[in-house]
Amino acid sequence: MMFAKPEGPRSAWDKSFFPVVFSRWCFAIAEVELKKLFRDPMELFSRAVQPVLWLVVFGQVFSRVRGIPIGNLSYLDYMAPGILAQSVLFSAIFYGIAVIWERDLGIIHKLLVSPANRGALVFGKAVAAGFRGLVQAVIIYLIALSLHISICWEPLAVIGVFFGIIIGSAIFSSFSLIIACLVKTRERFMGIGQVLTMPLFFASNAIYPLELMPGWLQVIARINPLTYLVDALRGLMIQGGQHIHRLSVDFGVMALIFLLLVAIAAKLYPSLVQ
Fold it and tell me: What pLDDT, in 10s, does the model give residues 46-70?
């Protein structure tokens, strides 16, 4: 039912309407993933605890430090987009463990023998991860309101933030899927995921400007997709927030990284069952 074959010759349909069929496959996978989320929504709220602690505790302490060059912004204003990006990262980077569970339950085998394109299987999971990221964004916005952070409420800015969250979640969930395909066991995956999260977070501009970093770390930060996500969010989410790069650069880099990761993940996906 999920991958119902349209009427008419399959080859002709695929050749003429592949984008439509690809979209149907993607949304079918996303629908299945979102049903899991709706059955157990406590996972999202439990993940909201960490950003609350970062903003309320860490942010309040570092707002008293005057040596951080953040312009006219308060440190809480500066930090809020970084914590939103951190929430996206921490939620999406462990997304791949669910794929390992699906393999153990035999679900991956069924997906691989379906007519769905391998890229659609990965893309659909990325769409579902983007929805998870949007829920996290709503929670962070509510926290920001309670802390009197200077949020920009212009409709285009809010839409831009949500789009950034979707593509950021998609990037890190696809990266997580690649890790799952390579390590293939839950224990190894959890170990690698825990090792990667904090370096990705601290090697970005989430909680301090790039110019405070040593030169070698700045090089790493400039190839870290989280840096571009934070940069876009800071310029869109906060009143008076400034970009390091233009929005077209931030979103363009993230889009290219996402497409590259989807291509790699689609190539590796069948290896889960080997």
Answer: 666 777 777 877 777 776 666 677 7
**Which residue range forms the structural domain that includes residue 264?**
20-273
Which residue has tokens 């050749």? 15
CA distance 148 to 9: 59
The answer to whether residue 12 sits within a structural domain is no
CA distance linking residue 87 with residue 79, whole number of Å = 12
The CA-atom distances, in angstroms, between 79 and each of 13, 14, 35, 52, 74 are 49, 47, 33, 12, 9
- On whether residue 2 sits in a domain, the answer given is no
92 inside domain = yes
* 60 CB neighbour count, 10 Å cutoff: 12
Q: How many domains, the chain?
A: 1
Residue 54 located in a structural domain: yes
pTM confidence score: 0.85
Mean of the per-residue pLDDT values of the chain = 82
Residues 6+ apart with CB under 8 A from 124: 25, 26, 27, 28, 29, 30, 33
For 253-268, what is the mean pLDDT? 92
- Read off the pLDDT of residues 162-206 as tens digits, 9 standing for 90 and up: 999 999 999 999 999 999 888 878 888 888 888 888 899 999 998
Query: Residue 54 has which token pair?
Result: 């970062």
